[in-house]
């Protein structure tokens, strides 16, 4: 069974097989985790993303889907880019957020990645409430069948860390 661990820190500093990027459908970069990954990983990642746009992903990557590239200069082998849903108070998009975790693990299995670091997808610029985002992350990872040995949830700030910690021990 997959071991779910929690780390407070920067996702770009994780020595793992694959790092998950909270990307957008253009795959061409942005702020938050996406900006940090491209900044630290270097131009090789953007070049690989451009190549994806020029081939199978002409219209971009759909929300809830995932695709892998090189990790460039990051201490990882691959970046798995996934597009979280933007939070909506009127429409339940939880399935799309769960799909990000499931699809990223499916891609990790295809790659043979044994250790995978995830950020709290959609809980930054996309506005998803952190407690609900944490619940969906933990429930989905725990209920997905995968060959991945360790899923490392990497959260940046103190408040988010506390919320993840409570949910990991409480559920
Ligand atoms: N390491 C770990 N966690 C981080 C880091 C980091 N270096 N930086 C931010 N976080 P976000 P989203 C936390 O905004 O909400 C981009 O422009 C952050 O506090 O990165 O899915 C993309 O291109 C938050 O809890 O992703 C998209 O357009 C969580 O990571 C859009 O933002 C996710 O925040 C995606 O928004």
Automatic annotation (TrEMBL):
Pfam families: Macro
Keyword tags: Hydrolase
Molecular function per GO: O-acetyl-ADP-ribose deacetylase activity
Domain Macro: 1-171
PROSITE patterns, A to Z: MACRO (PS51154)
Gene3D superfamilies registered for this protein in UniProt: Leucine Aminopeptidase, subunit E, domain 1
E.C. designation(s): 3.1.1.106
InterPro entries assigned to the protein according to its UniProt record, in alphabetical order: Macro_dom (IPR002589), Macro_dom-like (IPR043472)
Keyword Hydrolase carried by entry: yes
UniProt-recorded name of the protein: O-acetyl-ADP-ribose deacetylase
Species name: Nocardia aurea
